[in-house]
Amino acid sequence: MQTPANQSSVPVLTIDGPSGSGKGTISRIVAQRLGWHYLDSGALYRAVGIAASWADLDLSDPSALVRCTFDTNIGFRDDPSGEPRVIVNGQDATDELRTETAGGAASAIAAIPEVRAALKDRQRAFRQLPGLVADGRDMGTVIFPDAGHKVFLTASADERAERRHKQLKDKGVSVTLDGLLREILARDARDANRAVAPLRPADGAVRIDTTGLGIEDVVAQVLDVMSRPAG
Ligand code: DC
To answer: What CATH number is associated with residue 77?
Structure first.
């Protein structure tokens, strides 16, 4: 990665939205097409959640979780097929990070202001030339408020539950659609109602509702946003 003298001159596209809105898939493809770096900020929260559960920490003990946030080593590398792998304290934790349990732990620790503060610099360090696509909940509002382009992806809760159901089924994991829908709605409520950095569209973000749209349709809409002058 190349670090310019002035990091704020590096272009950033933020893609925020609730779980299941397609952020991860779309952000990765857009980053590839642009030849930019990619930040999966949710993976950082998930990694800290997993490290905390490995260490048997109490998820309601902020000081232990902040210490855990600083102590957890998180690395990203692409496997030969180009799939990003997440390495937590030297262990490939990619599959464990994708579970609903890890998502729930991430959402719980993400509500702690000190944990969010402890992850700020790590996220901003991804801003490297030639540019960054940053995927999360508060990329456009808190972490990169000066980003030139901002997108907010949504989709109906039913469709998000169905997408997640299909993904899990493809992986051989059996869960009920109803249960998933309940978990998604609970996570949405927690992420949108927390006191710090709640999930909401950034000022000036372009909203794209992905309900009923295919991946390429959404990618095309995001690339169209990128073709507009930076705000
Ligand atoms: O995007 P994801 O599902 O991997 O994120 C997991 C949880 O982490 C999500 O429920 C909320 C939290 N999160 C956050 O609070 N802020 C971010 N920028 C990214 C994720």
So the answer is: 3.40.50.300
